[in-house]
Design goal:
Elements (H helix, E strand, L loop, with lengths): L1 E6 L2 E10 L3 H20 L2 H17 L1 H12 L3 H19 L7 E5 L6 E8 L2 E6 L6 H12 L3 E6 L4 H12 L7 E3 L4 H10 L2 E5 L2 H14 L3 E4 L4 E5 L5 H13 L9 E7 L3 H13 L19 H10 L4 E4 L14 E4 L16 E7 L2 H9 L3 E2 L1 E5 L3 H8 L6 E4 L15 E2 L2 E2 L5 H7 L1 E8 L6
Length: about 450
């Protein structure tokens, strides 16, 4: 097998073509990381904090290069690529402070002298399996907390983001002791071997692969978290600022060609909002700049592969198209931002994550109906609610079965210092990011300290 990564805006441009290392290479990487981990864990908070801070500085120094690499390898529009690199710097800086955080608590015993202590300790080797759409930020928001609390890391990136992962590894390794951060390129074989050998596993990717990862990890009895997508809704009430709502939703549908797990794929217009929103959103989507991701003005670049482009185009076939619904005749794997309506309840757009710039407009009688439509999906990652009535928003928020809710804001956007994750088929296990990540990458132990000489 061969790992191949192409420029989705110019498929003739091949960034990586290397042999897959195989399962034994992945297992060997875990063993090397496991041998390096104890010194790292026991070296003290100052050393870990300084190393993670040095990673942040190095990423920042290479920001222009890294943004250009993300544009070239995964087709990320330049403005978004620059923002991702800036977020990556912030992630490493945030977790550079984590080694100084308390690692436990002290309690009184229920009766008599002595003390009870809790203490969090690293597991050993964190196995990370990451997607291509955020090639620097997602590996960083998994690796940085794992390293901060004393684990070593082995990363298996998506093949389409191999060049980005290898470059990130060069930067991270320049600041860390040997074998604490190892990248194993490849596909399912290498990913499966990593999950079978690591001490704690974090996965982001498709639902089908995520289920396999969870089954494998839980069968071994090791901690696992899996982020596996979304079918996110934007609920628009009649009292909303419809122009602003349309702009937010268009950006969430079409930004980075809809290739985000937080992208909007269902737009639920409540009551009288339907007709004006239909026109405003269709106009906003038609105005989205589509083209070369290297151009600073581009919002919607190419799909990651030809298959992804074709799958996106197939999703709107036979539906009533309000905007888009075309595949531009140009090099690269592009699809126009698309809005459809009159979508039957069983249609795949309402059941599956297409991962492209297409959304369905759905009518709802009232807020209760909109909440039921939103909750009908098997995913529950993020929902946006657009309204001028805070009481209505809060009423709806209480009954939405999603992990994240954004009021008068796009569904896209991540606050890395707060927990990230969803419900139902969107997530499995503890939350990512923020302080929640520090909990995930450590095991909690309870110690009883009884004084000597006491009966």
């Amino acid at each position: 097998m061969t790992v191949i990564s192409r420029n989705p805006a110019d498929p003739a441009d091949v960034l990586v073509e290397i042999p897959s290392p195989g399962a034994f290479a992945a297992a060997d990487a875990v063993e090397r990381a496991r041998a390096a981990q104890p010194d790292w864990a026991h070296g003290g908070a100052a050393a870990r904090a300084a190393a993670l801070g040095a990673v942040a500085d190095a990423v920042e120094a290479a920001r222009a290069e890294l943004a250009a690499l993300a544009v070239r390898e995964v087709g990320k529009p330049l403005a978004e690529a620059r923002a991702e690199v800036a977020r990556t710097v912030a992630i490493w800086r945030y977790y550079a402070q984590a080694p100084y955080e308390p690692t436990g608590t002290v309690h009184e015993t229920a009766a008599g002298p002595g003390l009870l202590l809790t203490r969090r300790r690293p597991y050993g080797v964190a196995g990370l399996v990451t997607p291509w759409n955020f090639p620097f930020a997602i590996p960083s928001w998994k690796a940085a907390p794992a390293l901060a609390v004393g684990n070593a890391v082995v990363l298996k990136p998506a093949p389409e983001a191999t060049a980005c992962a290898l470059r990130l590894a060069e930067i991270v390794r320049s600041a860390l002791p040997d074998d604490l951060f190892i990248v194993v390129p490849g596909g399912a074989t290498e990913g499966g071997a990593l999950v079978s050998a690591a001490d704690v596993v974090s996965f982001t990717g498709s639902s089908a692969v995520g289920r396999t990862v969870v089954r494998s990890a839980t069968a071994r009895g090791i901690p696992v978290q899996a982020e596996t997508g979304g079918l996110n809704a934007a609920i628009v009430l009649p009292d909303a600022d419809l122009g602003r709502a349309a702009a937010h939703i268009a950006a969430s549908v079409a930004g980075y060609a809809g290739q985000k797990c937080t992208a909007t794929s269902r737009v639920i217009a409540v009551g009288a909002a339907l007709d004006p929103l239909r026109e405003a959103l269709a106009e906003a989507l038609r105005a989205v700049p589509v083209g070369d991701p290297a151009e600073p003005s581009t919002v919607c670049g190419p799909l990651i592969t030809e298959t992804a482009r074709d799958d996106t185009g197939a999703a709107w076939q036979g539906l009533s198209v309000l905007a888009g619904g075309t595949v531009p005749d140009r090099p690269g794997w592009y699809a126009a931002p698309t809005l459809v309506e009159k979508v039957a309840p069983g249609h795949r757009l309402l059941r599956e994550e297409v991962f492209g710039p297409v959304a369905a407009l759905l009518p709802a009688r009232d807020l209760d109906h909109a909440v039921r439509i939103t909750n009908a999906a098997r995913y529950g990652l993020v929902t946006s609610v657009h309204t001028a009535d805070l009481n209505a928003a809060l009423h709806g928020l209480d009954r939405l079965d999603t992990g994240m809710i954004r009021v008068n804001a796009p569904t896209t956007g991540v606050d890395f210092h707060l927990p990230f994750g969803g419900t139902k088929s969107s997530s499995f296990g503890p939350r990512e990011q923020g302080a929640a990540a520090l909990e995930f990458y450590t095991s909690s132990r309870t110690y009883t300290l009884a004084p000597t000489g006491v009966v």
